Amino acid sequence: MNPKNFVRILLSVIFMTLAVLACGQAPTATALPTLAAPTATEPPTAIPPTPVPPTATPTPISLPVPEGSPYPMPAASISAENAGDLVLLTQWNKGEEVIDIVWSPDGNILAGIYNESLDVSLWDAKTGAEIRTLMPPSLVWGLSFSPDGKTLATGLEDGTIIIWDVATGQETLRFKQGSDTVIGVAFSSDGKTLISHSIENVFLWDPATGKEINRFGGYLGLFAFAFSPDDSTIATAHVTSIRLWDVTDTAKPAKELATLTGDEKKMDMLGFSYDGKILASSGKTIELWDVASKSKLATLSGHTDDIWEIAFSPNQNLLGSTSLDKTLKFWNLETKSEAASFTGESDYLSLEFSPDGTLLVTTSADGGVQIWGVYP
Question: Tens digits of per-residue pLDDT, 19-59?
């Protein structure tokens, strides 16, 4: 979750707390009991095919490519050893901040959320040409491709979740999480479960029907979550602590495994390494946790302002981070030290490594989208 979303959520928490105090009751941090598969607030609605407004045929954007970097071409896997050799391969800019961006599983499409408009854009990752624009009815806070890349899930500010057909740009399913904002969404690795979360609970859904499978949480101030690669564990961030949940059997109530407490006073980003052995959390620093022992491995310091996003590289030994201090940093997970740092003209926002680990996409506060790579 990015810092702007954190501010919105924090205000909601403050207002709710004041409301409770006004009624003469002191707020408590007591966990609510885990709930098993209640009925969804509203029945899911299957969306029949509807006419989609015609869009202009995508035309290749004139992209400034650094001399000597003919994109695309075979590139090396980005690692802690070569992160300092990253070069800008191509970039484009529509003049509006892209606050979150994700790769399709095959690495051919990028999907991004605009900060001010309600739009979600799909781009050709190799040319920067806009394939199509999705137009949800409310501001999008989270998005996730299904493992087969055929659908895209979006979580909206008004509590709605929409499943889109990537090939046609049409809605295939729309259902409600509730009235609270859908802060984030993610598919399980087998595509059979869609996870979403509000300010208080995590929800598990059948993405084919929109039926709620389960929910758990009950802790006010749930700012981020991460799903382990083997689909067995969900981590949730609660300002100053992290909770780990066993969701091996999604039909049963989730079991709380552990609570991790670090030095950070605001944890608003989480991520598992590709092998699931390390969990990273961030605020103004990054804390690394050993998932098996539930212990802290290290604190990575270097950013001078809030960290916007963190992302693990598929090669296992590198973590990337962006910050409102205008830097893009890379961290060696073996030495637990900074591997490389780049400074931009504006703040770097979202980042994500391509599925094969050879490319990196970043976005910046000036509206830019950048593709980076390393050549052998």
Answer: 333 334 433 333 333 333 334 445 565 444 333 333 333 33
In contact, 339 and 327? CB cutoff 8 Å: no
Asked if residues 287 and 281 have their Cβ atoms less than 8 Å apart, the reply is yes
Q: What's the CATH number where 154 sits?
A: 2.130.10.10
Count of alpha carbons within 13 angstroms of residue 283, beta-carbon side: 16
Residue 328 near residue 342, CB atoms below 8 Å = yes
The number of domains in the chain is 1
Distance between CA 343 and CA 114 in Å, rounded? 23
Domain assignment of residue 80, given as a range: 3-14+74-373
Tokens describing residue 14: 């403050």
Contact 353, 360 (CB under 8 A): yes
Two tokens at 251?
């039909």
Residues 189-219 have pLDDT tens digits of 999 999 999 999 999 999 999 999 999 987 7
Q: Which residues contact 64 (CB under 8 A, 6 or more apart)?
A: 90, 91
Give the Cα separation of 281 and 349 in Å (integer). 16
| Entry pTM | 0.82
Query: In the sheet where 327-332 sits, what is the strand order?
Result: 307-312, 318-323, 327-332, 337-343
